[in-house]
Each structure stands twice: as structure tokens, then as C-alpha cells.
Amino acid sequence: MLPSLLSVVAATALVSSSVVSAAPQGFRHARSADGSGGYGQACTLETIKTRVDFNSMAPADRKAYTDAIKCLMGKPSQLDSTQYPAAINRYMDYAVIHVNRTQYVHLDAFFLTWHRYFLWLYETDLQQSCGYTGAFPYWDFAATAADPHAFPIFDGSDYSMSGDGLYNNSGPIQLGASLTIPHGTGGGCVTTGPFANLIAPIKFIDAAQLATGTLPADAFAYNEICLQRDLNAYVSQTYTNQAQLTAAAHADNATHLEFLLNGVIGSSSLGIHSGAHFSVGGQMNSIHVSAQDPVWYPLHTMIDKVYTSWQANYPERASQLDGSTGTALNTPPSDVVTLDTIEPDWGYFQLSPIQVRELISTTAGPFCYQYDNVIS
């Protein structure tokens, strides 16, 4: 059973464009070949891609998506196996990179834009490495809040993102002195659906590590750990309901948006983002290692949809940042992030530096995508 998070993050959280030129490992890189910083062709009605809710996809389309993920899991890692033993395949390379960057892309001003590009890199990899041609899905966790089990994404069928973990009642989860959530309906290994019996080899890293600014010495060791989940309707009903998402899509400013997504350290409530993580449980309860679970990607695509909806609802605020620095808990101390600040990198998936401003719009910079609807 994975341990619970400490109070240091109990309420925070797990917190027109282009065709791009060639990069290593089959990637199209974001920059034009002349190094000018341009991004090639403009995003048009003919080239824009539309992201959709996983639960709205036809069964065959859902399976095509999970088949592409399994294809990525079947490709060799591009990381140094001596330095990163847990990088057992190309899919887990993303999880390792996410662990390595956690201190710099959570609970800070990079959170939304860094993850936006990380998702795009992953989507592009599914397309270019595994031939995926379908829509990149999000998980509308407000729509499933009443009972996540009752929807295709978690029904455990061949057309799902796998189901709950085996039942293992370890009691309530204490997230801090003033925040306890009840146990969910799982807690053990995931044994159904496309990712049944998946090994998630990066061991649980407690969120208390954020206060140190470092990772455990064995953070990237290989561990024979199964993918675990503990679906929790209490958490989803309380923290990821439609009212919460609508409020975020109408936040007064970027600081208010960040608060609604990630909460405040030491408070007695989870934000939307951390609420979504804890509604899944297992590895998803760790801010560091959660990207091992394939549902991490539809979850974060939904967070990007909330961000995109806020930008669409208030175009004059679309480029606002929340005024925070570039490290979690400002540890180690770092400068306030501006639109001109260079983003933390994305490991071997990225070639040249990228400024925050280049990742603000979903139809500019490297991006050319939209969502099937806006949270209004």
C-alpha cells in the first residue's frame, strides 16, 4: 500500500500555430530550421486538432488510444539505464523526466505552461512513434465525479483506461492535521483493462521532499511495484465537481486560478488538480511519480482544458502569470517568472530553450489544437 502525502502538499498539488521541424528520436522540433525562433506554418481550420473527452469516444477509438500507449511501452528507453534504472521503456522515460523536473514545474509559475508542452510532446510521440491518428483525450472528471466506476474510463474493460485497484482497506488517509479523506474502493494492484498488472517501477516519493529541494538518492531505482489505484468518489464529488471547474474557468486572475487548482499549503481543502489526483489514488497520490499511471495524461489534459477555458473566457487575462517563482515552495530560492523566462527543459525530448510566452496559446508557438468545448 502506498503511504499518504504529508500536509506540505495536502491542499496544493500534485498541482494560430505550426508544423515543426525534425528532432531526435523521430520528433518534430518546435523551432524552425533557420534558428530564428519561428514555428513554421500557421495554425488553420484545416490543420487544427480537437481534443475530446475520453468517455465520448467510440470504443474502437478508445482502444486505439490505449494501444498506442502500449506501443510506447514496448519501445526502448532513450535514457542512461545506469543512471535511470526505472526507465524501462520509452513510456517510463516521461515519468522519469517528470520526477526529475518536479521541483521546478509544480507549485510555481511554470506549472501550467510546462505541463501543456509536456502533454504535447507525449501526444506527438504517440503519433510519430506509434502511428496514433485519433484525438488526444481528456478526462472530464467533473462529469464522472458522482461515481468514476460508472464511466468507460474506469470500467476495467478493454476499452477503458483500466479499472480500480483490488480492494485493500488501509483506513482513512491523513493528509495533514486538519485534512483526512476516507479510503476509496480499491487500494491494491490494477488487474483489469489495458494496463492490468502494469509495473510502475519508481517507488513512492513523499511530497515532504519538496521542502528539501532534492530527490531521494534512490529516486530512479527499479522497483517491482504494480500500478495501484483507489478510486474515491468522496474526493471527486467534493473537489472536482462542475461548480469547482466553472469557478476556475472564471477565476478573477491568474493567482486566483492557481489557488482554485492547487489550494494553499496548510489549508484543510484540496484544489481541483490535487483533488483529481487523490480521486484516483495509488501512484497518483505522489506529486513526483504520478506520471507512471496512464490516466495521468487525460487528467492533465483536463487541467489544460480548464486553463484554456479561462484564457478563452477572458482573453485580456490569457497571458497573465501568477507572480510566483520558478521552484516549488521557492526551494531553492528562484526568480519571479515572467513571460520572457526560459522554461525548465523536458529532458531529451526538447532541443532548444523555450520562453514561457511561447507556450501561452494553444494555437500559437508549437501548438495547433483546441478543445471540443469551453467551460463557460
From TrEMBL:
GO MF terms, alphabetically ordered: metal ion binding; oxidoreductase activity
Record protein name field: Tyrosinase copper-binding domain-containing protein
PROSITE patterns noted in UniProt: TYROSINASE_1
Domain Tyrosinase copper-binding: 106-123
Superkingdom per UniProt: Eukaryota
Signal peptide: 1-22
Classification via PANTHER family: N-ACETYL-6-HYDROXYTRYPTOPHAN OXIDASE IVOB-RELATED (PTHR11474:SF125), TYROSINASE FAMILY MEMBER (PTHR11474)
Alphabetic keyword roster: Metal-binding, Oxidoreductase, Signal
Organism listed in the record: Capronia coronata CBS 617.96
